[in-house]
Amino acid sequence: MSCYCKSGQEYINCCEQFHNGSKNPSTPEELMRSRYSAFATINMKYLKETMIGEVVEEFDEEEALAWSKSVNWVGLVVLEAKLIDPTHGVVEFEAFFKDPEEPLIGSMHERSTFTMNDGQWFYTGRLFNEHEQVDLEDKCPCASGKQFQKCCYGDDS
After folding, report:
1. How many whole angstroms separate alpha carbon 79 and alpha carbon 65?
2. How many CA atoms lie less than 13 Å away from 92 in the CB half-sphere?
3. If exposure means fewest CB atoms within 10 Å of the residue's CB, which of 14, 83, 93, 148 is most exposed?
4. What is the mean pLDDT of residues 62-84?
């Protein structure tokens, strides 16, 4: 099965190894992708374990669980991933989800911050977060020039 994070790898060779604890993400982008996959697989435990700082206190597990159960996660596009220094990173991404009650695809555009602590990357917050709806016939945000439905939305959604 293809990984939920749209890396092009099989789930077992990608985010599953992070979710089951056999390996830790080695970059902020890997952590962000694994957290997206955790939302897709409704793995709240992993989401909580991969945060530090104020976001842990702000995390509403029941709300996140209810939201994850109410949508189908259908795509992820990493817009930028960079290290600020050896222990701090930023990842800007757009995640796509389908609410069965809505005709359009939902989009969450976020710029997330990450910190390395004791050799492990953690999610520490976001610089911005925007939600909007996307028409399947719009151009894909990955800049391929293709329609979203024929690109990152994928055929397996």
Report:
1. 26
2. 8
3. 83
4. 93
98 vs 104: CA distance, rounded Å: 7
Closest by alpha carbon to 76, among 39, 21, 104, 27? 39
Return the sign of the alpha-carbon dihedral for residues 20, 22, 24, 25: negative
User: d(Cα 154, Cα 131) in Å, to the nearest integer?
Assistant: 20
* Rounded Cα–Cα distance for residues 21 and 128 (Å): 29
DSSP codes, 79-121: EEEEEEETTEEEEEEEEEEE-TT-SSEEEEEEEEEEEEETTEE
Instruction: Tell me which residue of 27, 46, 19, 5 sits closest to 88, measured CA to CA.
Output: 27
Residue 40's identity, in one-letter code, is A
Provide the token pair at 66: 């209810």
Average pLDDT over residues 124-142: 68
Q: Name the one residue in this structure whose structure tokens are 């997330």.
A: 112
Q: What is the pTM of this model?
A: 0.83
CB-facing half-sphere around the CA of 24: CA atoms within 13 A? 13
